[in-house]
């Protein structure tokens, strides 16, 4: 391996009980199974390029500081469920047709085994397309514009989902700016993100807070939400899932492609927690054993129940 | 004198709720409508006061038809709509400046240009039909006020007072009562908020309304509500008064605190007034929550949450949940969010908050089910009180608009 600076981007995706989960979910309304195994979705990058060929022995994983034995590692062949969150606020009005075409191009980047769900957010969060096999043409005609930016609402609507075994869940949100109208606060987004089985990437075009000049009834629009505080909350939430908060550069299709390719080329690590209490918050640390200037980014942990 | 006005505020009125859900029109469109509707009051006045009758819908009917079809951006589609207008308006149009759409603003400025030109030539237009000058004055006022959407509150105030002055020449009528409520509701939608609290304009206007209809409880609630809409911002809980009050209005902590206390006192004083007591409690509770006075907020909101008014019950339960969450009483917060969700199962704000609380309590399957229910197969016209609760009486706007229209048909 070259000695140059390696950028390692590790995304921990799934924290879900493995085999008991299916039965529990199917037979009970309330999900209360014990954590028996933890799946960790990992992407390793070198200067934004995915690193392939790593094996289980290359990774070290700690659960509440206790080293864990990896039971399995699978590479990027695991199918992906993508939840695409797109804004339909006032700014999208003039270019709605372009927007629809871009979403079609994004869908074309997925593999036949992948699924795509589209959620739009303006004032309301709307499921434009349920989780559907990526081979189908996205139902972009259902996109309609709105006048608000309820990003936080959309994020939790995507993150709150029943765990899907043998599939990874990637949430990518595109927003013109930070949240302006949600009932859901940044701290709630963080709380949900920490417990969700998804990797969250948020792409923001501008850090300016939503304009108060938009002619809508005041409502929550007058909320003195600091753009800086909202940005910090989004960053913490996305990084807690192993994802990232990004500023839009170039086209949204290109940005989507980058995120998706990094995610797809990742690994899924599986371990059964040992030597730690089951309940409560489990801090996870993932490292590469081999030396180098690796940047390791991973989900911050999970709640054991 | 107590004039019976239906149905604003009726919690059990399904029709109103449906109307409310469709209330997502822009303030420009709203301004257009209320004053177009205001203009249409002319025939009623004409009947009441032996003025010559006319066909009031000739001027604005095609616009109103567009709104009837749910095309709330009709003002922005003026160029299309104008083609279907009858001769009367075409005559006016031919005398106005050329109308051009500005790229990127989808025709809205064209309507502004029209409104401005129309107002400029208003005097001639009013005089040109002597028999209909009364109605035409009102129409002019209605169209001139469209410019208020671009921030011309003085025009809004002037036009409103102009129409109000016309009304005051005659005894109160049911139409005027609704019109006064509609003006209030629209001004509280945001664009006219400053107008409402300016002593010269808004306060005077409210005084006029109160003097004409002294038994109307919404005008009593409007006194603190106007202050809230114009000066108090929503914010995270546990803040100082100065953070709650818009800095441009009240400069320092002491005066901010005095201002907030005054509004709270006003709201508390209304808690014994029938019809608005629970809403006053709800609004006081929300302010106290933001000030971090969680116990007193909870006392207000828990009472208001038992209201028969669906809006009050929904918002009170939602904020009750937020207070309980802030107090760390998560199971109780979950119950409050569930109550909000039950108060209006289609209200997405409560659904999302309820789902989030279920999820963090480990009830993932139920949470996912609530999320699916609220994002799937949405009726695009469905709104959420979350987006209008800070806008005072704006939630009644659609109902008032409907009443004004209905009166035209009589």
What does this molecule look like?
Chain A is built from six helices and 15 strands. Chain A has 305 residues and is α/β, with parallel strands linked by helices. Chain A has two domains: 19-76 and 265-304, Immunoglobulin-like; 80-262, von Willebrand factor, type A domain (Rossmann fold), CATH 3.40.50.410. Chain A has a six-stranded mixed β-sheet, with helices on both faces. In chain A, strands 5-4-14-15 form a four-stranded antiparallel β-sheet, with no helix packed on it. The model of chain A is unreliable at 1-33 and 212-224 (pLDDT under 50). Chain B is mainly alpha-helical and 410 residues long. Chain B has two domains: 14-220 and 397-409, no CATH class; 230-389, Serine Threonine Protein Phosphatase 5, Tetratricopeptide repeat (Alpha Horseshoe). In chain B, 65% of the residues lie in helices and 0% in strands. The longest helix of chain B is centred in the first third of the chain and has 22 residues, at 27-48. Chain B is globular and about 70 Å long. Residues 1-68, 70-79, 84-122 and 140-155 of chain B have low confidence and may be disordered. The chains are: A alpha/beta (305), B mainly alpha (410). At the A-B interface, strand 9, helix 3 and helix 4 of A face helix 20 and helix 21 of B.
């Amino acid at each position: 391996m070259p000695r140059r600076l390696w950028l390692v981007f590790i995304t921990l995706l799934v924290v879900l009980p493995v085999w008991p989960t299916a039965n529990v979910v199917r037979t009970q309304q309330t999900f209360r199974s014990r954590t028996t195994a933890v799946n960790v979705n990992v992407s390793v990058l070198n200067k934004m390029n995915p690193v392939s060929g790593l094996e289980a022995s290359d990774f070290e994983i700690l659960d509440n500081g206790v080293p864990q034995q990896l039971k399995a590692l699978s590479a990027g062949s695991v199918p992906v469920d993508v939840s695409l969150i797109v804004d339909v606020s006032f700014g999208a009005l003039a270019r709605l047709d372009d927007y629809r075409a871009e979403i079609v191009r994004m869908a074309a980047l997925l593999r036949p085994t992948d699924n795509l769900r589209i959620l739009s957010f303006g004032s309301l969060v709307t499921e434009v397309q349920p989780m559907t096999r990526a081979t189908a043409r996205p139902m972009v005609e259902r996109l309609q514009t709105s006048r608000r930016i309820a990003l936080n609402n959309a994020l939790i609507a995507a993150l709150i989902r029943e765990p899907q075994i043998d599939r990874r869940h990637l949430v990518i949100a595109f927003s013109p700016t930070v949240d302006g109208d949600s009932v859901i606060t940044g701290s709630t987004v963080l709380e949900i993100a920490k417990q969700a089985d998804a990797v969250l990437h948020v792409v923001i075009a501008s850090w300016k807070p939503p304009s108060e000049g938009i002619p809508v009834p005041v409502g929550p629009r007058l909320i003195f939400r600091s753009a800086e505080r909202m940005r910090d909350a989004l960053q913490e939430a996305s990084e807690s899932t192993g994802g990232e908060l990004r500023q839009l550069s170039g086209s949204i299709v290109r940005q989507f492609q980058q995120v998706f390719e990094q995610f797809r080329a990742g690994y899924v690590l599986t371990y059964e927690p040992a030597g730690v209490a089951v309940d409560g918050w489990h801090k996870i640390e993932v490292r590469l054993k081999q030396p180098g200037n690796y940047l390791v980014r991973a989900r911050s942990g999970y709640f054991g129940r | 004198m107590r004039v019976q006005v239906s149905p604003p505020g009726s919690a059990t009125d399904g029709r109103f709720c449906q109307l409310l859900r469709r209330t997502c029109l822009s303030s420009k469109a709203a301004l257009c409508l209320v004053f177009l509707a205001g203009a249409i009051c002319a025939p009623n006045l004409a009947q009441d006061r032996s003025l010559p009758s006319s066909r009031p819908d000739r001027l604005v009917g095609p616009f109103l038809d567009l709104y009837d079809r749910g095309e709330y951006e009709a003002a922005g589609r003026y160029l299309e709509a104008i083609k279907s207008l009858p001769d009367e308006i075409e005559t006016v149009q031919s005398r106005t400046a050329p109308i051009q759409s500005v790229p990127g603003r989808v025709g809205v400025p064209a309507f502004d240009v029209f409104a401005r030109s129309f107002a400029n030539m208003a005097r001639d237009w009013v005089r040109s039909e002597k028999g209909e000058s009364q109605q035409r004055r009102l129409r002019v006022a209605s169209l001139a006020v469209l410019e208020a959407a671009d921030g011309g509150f003085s025009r809004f105030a002037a036009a409103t007072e102009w129409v109000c002055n016309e009304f005051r020449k005659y005894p109160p009528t049911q139409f005027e009562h609704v019109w006064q409520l509609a003006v209030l509701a629209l001004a509280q939608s945001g664009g006219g908020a400053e107008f409402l609290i300016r002593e010269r304009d808004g306060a005077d206007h409210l005084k006029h309304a109160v003097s004409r209809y002294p038994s109307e409880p919404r005008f009593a609630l409007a006194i603190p509500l106007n202050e809230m809409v114009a000066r108090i911002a929503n914010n995270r809980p546990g803040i100082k008064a100065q953070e709650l009050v818009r800095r441009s209005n009240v400069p320092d902590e002491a005066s901010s605190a005095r201002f907030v206390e005054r509004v709270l006192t006003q709201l508390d004083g209304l808690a014994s007034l029938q019809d608005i007591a629970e809403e006053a409690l709800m609004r006081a509770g929300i302010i106290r929550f933001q000030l971090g006075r969680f116990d007193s907020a909870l006392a207000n909101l828990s009472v208001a949450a038992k209201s028969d008014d669906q809006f009050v019950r929904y918002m009170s339960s939602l904020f009750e949940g937020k207070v309980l969450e802030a107090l760390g009483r998560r199971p109780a917060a979950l119950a409050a969010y569930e109550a909000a969700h039950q108060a209006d199962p289609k209200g997405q704000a409560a659904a999302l908050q309820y789902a989030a609380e279920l999820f963090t309590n480990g009830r993932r399957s139920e949470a996912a089910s609530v999320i699916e229910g609220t994002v799937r197969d949405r009726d695009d016209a469905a709104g959420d009180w979350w987006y209008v609760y800070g806008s005072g009486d704006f939630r009644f706007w659609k109902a008032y608009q409907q009443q004004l229209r209905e009166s035209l048909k009589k």
